[in-house]
Amino acid sequence: MRKKRFVVGGLVAVCLAAFCPAPAVAAVWLSENFDSYQLGNLDGQGGWTGNPGAVRVENTFAQSGKAVRSNYKSYGSGEATRSVNSGGGYHTIDVDVAMNITRGADGYEGANLGKIYIRRSDAVEITRIYLADNQLKVRLADRQPVILTPVPNLTWQRVRLGINLTTGRMDVWVNGAQVLANEAVVNGATSISMISVGQWDCGSQFSVAETYVDNLQCSGALLPGTSALILSGTKAPGWERYNVCSPFVFYDAGAFKMYYSGSGTCQMNESVSDQWMTGLATSIDSLNWTRNDTDFEPVLYARKFYEGDLLDPDEQSAIFDSMFAIGACVIKDGPVHKMWYTGWNGDTEHIGGGVENKIDYRIGYATSTDGQSWAKHEISGNPSPVLDIGSPGQLDSKGVGQPYVLKEGSTYRMWYEGFDGTKWRIFYATSSDGISWTKQGVALGSGTAGSPDDQGVRNPVVIQRNGLYELWYQGRGSSSPNYHVLRATSSDGTVWLKSPTEIVLHPVAPPADEAVWTASDPAAEVYVDSIIVQADNSCQLFYTKEITGTVVKTCGTVKLKRLHIYTEVVVP
Question: 502 and 452 in contact (C-beta within 8 Å)?
Fold first, then answer.
């Protein structure tokens, strides 16, 4: 075994910040309840522009606080428009609408032709919903109105439009009931660019002309086959400057939490190493994430170093997580957050040809009452692993890591990866307290020659879906491409049947910086770290993708590697 000496440089902490969780994969790009607006003209408030006085903010009749009122008799015809940029894909537009259909002395019902336009960038109408003759209507691609439902007088209706810009089709719900499915609307839009509210000229025959709009919310959702890059290195001095990876995501107390790993430098070979630690980010929609806003530091450290520290290799080797504290799996067990993570002490093993393996990974444990401040499991004042490497000759004798834990009843079940110096396998262990573990042996081994996992299996993630356990894992193959996202199923979580179908992901390339980066390198790693099963039984994956690039240095052309975090919805 070879141990290396490290000198630690200075780190600078950098402040860098990047409604509805159903569907989980939804990013809100417009949300207005108008309650913070001043009474009077909507024009000139909150980015809305239009005919002054045609559309007004009132509080005499509203779902909550204030609402937008259009009244041709009082204000005249016209509309107010808000410029937006939804992006592509599938979008939901939710809005409350109501109208006054009081019949005047002339016998006509009022509230004709109150409208909400949805337009693309060239101002062409994609669709509209409008209130006319005591009916709620929508326009489709043939430009004919479709009656959705009769509307009672001054009664709020909740309308949802689900617009797929990719296909040019739309779904419609009224008060939670779907009334239209997959209907064609105007195609050719790459983004929703304008939303307008207002009222047409109703004509002199109407004595009443009032319509109301409130609680407008617009969200974009990922479609299967598309991904979102949700976290990258900060590119500023700090512990996560260069790499972020291994996201573990779960929903807790009205928000998504992501525990992820990060490092501050690029590692081009095994002759040097940097510390890797665990950070925290939060999100209300699973697409837009805010890093830890307490001190912009990790929530789980490896050993804390100070500038200029000269590290003793033997001392470092004795602390199992002195260099790495990464790969977290977190559950909330009653009031306590419990974390299992991978620790590494800096040990390596020379295997010939100038190549070294990192060895002696072990699994640690920490607890927290708030998910922010963590206390590691210790023995005699030092962090101590709760799952150690196997004895010499055993299949996990060179390292254990990447724990994935489920609690079922009073039993904790852990699937983890183990290394024998040549090949990685997935193992299984059980515990009654989450600290003392009993190893149960290999859960999943490598495949036969020529299979996509013939060189090993790693990164277990276990979910329950369709009445079965599913084990998602990274397969390492001997032929190009070398890394694959694979699955196996089980009725009890112990005996697994591999699926023959590979999961194909679609990561987009991040913005270029100092190198020519590519997202399509067949030798670049990809692995799933956590999964949220959606209400429709699809799976939202949070995964790591290695991006490679080349730069010319004085020593020659160097291949760089950088890790980024993505999310994607798949329907396996």
Answer: yes
